[in-house]
Amino acid sequence: MLPRPYRASVALSWTTPANGGSAITGYVLYRATTSDSATPVATLGVTTSYQDTDVSNWTSYYYQVSAVNPVGEGALSNEASATPQAPAASTPPPTPQDLTASEGQGRGVQLNWSAPASNGGAAISGDRIYRGTTAADEETLVNTPTSTSYKDTKVARGATYYYQVSAVDAAGEGSLSNEASATSR
Asked: What is the radius of gyration, based on Cα positions, of the chain?
């Protein structure tokens, strides 16, 4: 179980529908983890909002609500979805270290680097690799899962490429690594 500040929740709100001649006395909240399969999870009083704390981080939830009056329960609302996530770390991850670029086996440029020594407070979720054909002018090439190597095979033979790498976590993207270059075969 996550500590209190990291508990998942979904904030829901809706507008009051026309009452059809009888005052609304409450609402029924429906929830599911797949679309169009909601079942009732809460009976609410006369309110137009609800904080669902019985959910898990990184799971998608689908919601609908129906109004209740003395005549009975009305039709379900449109479906809304949310995926709660733990709050972002307070700082982005540190910089990957020791980036090297070399001719890859066969066609391509092989990149290798060392992962940051610490993660800045949240788990590193991936790396961003930047490539350019002139120094200090790299553009995003690819987002990768957490790794310490990558082979760039979309290169022209005999061209020189410049690279930098950054780490990514829930707080965002960290600083760019040192620049490394290589000429492809």
From this structure: 25
Residue pair 83/54 in contact by the 8 Å Cβ criterion: no
Spans in the chain with pLDDT lower than 50: 1-6, 89
CA 43/CA 169 separation, integer angstroms: 38
Domains 4-82 and 97-183 share a fold: yes
Question: What CATH class does 97-183 carry?
Answer: mainly beta
Rounded to whole angstroms, the maximal C-alpha distance in the chain is 79
Nearest to 64 by CA among 17, 26, 30, 32: 30
pLDDT, tens only, 155-170 = 988 899 999 999 887 7
Homologous superfamily (CATH) of 4-82 is Immunoglobulins (2.60.40.10)
Domains of the chain by residue range: 4-82, 97-183
Q: Are 95 and 116 in contact (CB under 8 A)?
A: yes
Quick one: pLDDT at residue 85? 80
